[in-house]
Amino acid sequence: MAAHAPILEEVREAAADGTPVLGICNGAQIGCEAGLTPGAFTTNESARFQCEPVHVRVENAATPWTAAYDEGEVIELPIAHGEGRFEIADDRLQQLEETDRVLFRYCEPDGEVTAAADPNGSTDNVAGVLGTDDHVAVLMPHPERATLPDLGATDGQGVLRAFA
Amino acid sequence: MSAYTATVTVRPKRGVLDPEAETTQRALERLGFDLADLRSADRFEVDLDAADAAAARARATEMAEWLLANPTIHDYDVEVGEA
Question: Does ipTM come in above 0.95?
Fold first, then answer.
């Protein structure tokens, strides 16, 4: 619904002009619905709201969002969503892989991508994807909730550095 | 212009997981109901004035494409009747 709110036109224009645009959680759902990024986020496999820390692997470190990390690096971020399952048509998924548009994948603490490490049933464990341009991205986990030592986690700082 | 009601039914595409349906089915079975399968769908009833049924259908289809359904994960169908 929010994908058709008037403000999205301005977001679209800003993105086209090169402004970094990051959609987190509900913002990720909106980014996909608005067509800024491919795919869709829908009801968790559990059909429940889930709030827990997860591990994600950096799949593409050559973007503003992941420049602070190494490719393959595993970071811990919190999730808090009921509709975070990434879905996309098979041919478009293949296209995503071929063009290196997958930003993060849910994984085990050691980096292995397994079905058990996928908290919500996302296709291919996808936790975050890039738009056509690298400066447009969405992800379901919350990097902004993992930026202060007092909160117990700081792994998300690197993502937000893209705005600095 | 005549008054029509367009009914738009939106459901998960074939092959797309439907956790709400699975949860509902499990709950029904837990209550002792016997069933083979269950699918969920959203149904929207849109009252509108249009020149004819085809025009009403065209407008409701546009609504489905734009907002009521997400083409990445949903299929939809539109039925039009006189209100």
Answer: no
